[in-house]
Amino acid sequence: MDSNTEGDISFEESDRKKHKGSESPIMDRDETYKLLQKSLVSDGLINAIKETLLSVDFVGQFCQAIVMSELFMHGISEVIHQRVDMQVKDVQEQLKVANERIVKLTNKLNDIEQYSKRRDLIITGIPMKQTEDTTSIIVDLAKSLGVKIGVKDIYATHRLPVRRIDSTQSIIVSLVRAGDRQAIYSKRKQLKEMQNYKQVFINEHLTSINHEIYVYARKTLDKRRVFTRNGLVHYYVASAKNILISSLDQIDSI
């Protein structure tokens, strides 16, 4: 065997030793990884993690950390605000619908009540006597206006109570026929020309709502242009043009 052959054999043995030495660390790492993986999935470790996560102290600290988090509080605040806004809008919509229904029902009841007063008149300015017959007073008043009615044409009549003792009590009269009532009311302005009735005024019997509208209209607008017709309040604007007033808000917009 020559020297070259011996050199080749020595080189191969040296190379095998190098490879053999380099394989050992790789196997050690694989075994270590397998052992670590096995230990991580062991029942003991899993149970220990469960016990830790379910422990009162851990849960308390975890919840406290969440609650104290600014991000968590901001998120909760946004959710609450959105929920409250939705509820407020829902309540506002319900109130709007309810108010509209209330207004409609109130107006309807007011119209029915006013219709029931279509045969009534309120007479003011007639002095009160200790012994008097209000029915006869109305008959005489109608006669002075050229309207012929008798006791049988009057359903009821009486004095109205007043708050002030020194004020004259008005007389309310309810006639049997609406036509007789209208005949008397249409001639009411003639009373100014009569000596005995200069201080006497004849008005329609209004509901509390219409009366409030009438008083406010006379106070706010030109009272000479405010009048009632069939229990409804009107405002004279121009020649042959009147505005029907049905609410207090409408008066403010005129």
State the main characteristics.
254 residues; alpha+beta; Alpha-Beta Plaits; four-stranded antiparallel sheet; three-stranded antiparallel sheet; 14% strand; rod-shaped; coiled coil
Class based on secondary structure composition and strand pairing: alpha+beta
Write out the CATH superfamily name of the largest domain. L1 transposable element, RRM domain
SS field, number of helical segments: 8
Question: Number of folding domains?
Answer: 4
Averaged pLDDT, please? 85
What is the second-level CATH architecture of the largest domain? 2-Layer Sandwich
Distance between the termini: 133 Å
How many DSSP E strands?
Answer: 7
Describe the largest sheet: 4 strands, antiparallel
CATH class of the largest domain: Alpha Beta
Poorly predicted runs are: 3-7
Could you explain the architecture of this structure?
Keywords: Coiled coil. Residues 81-115 form a coiled coil. This protein has 254 residues and is α+β, with helices and mostly antiparallel strands. It folds into four domains: 3-66; 70-117; 119-205, 2-Layer Sandwich (Alpha-Beta Plaits), CATH 3.30.70.1820; 206-254, no CATH class. 58% of the residues lie in helices and 14% in strands. The strands form two sheets. It has a four-stranded antiparallel sheet with strand order 2-3-1-4. The N and C termini lie far apart (133 Å). 11% of the residues are buried. Mean pLDDT is 85; it is low at 3-7.
Summarize this entry quickly:
Residues 1-26 are annotated as: Disordered. The protein is an alpha+beta fold and 254 residues long.
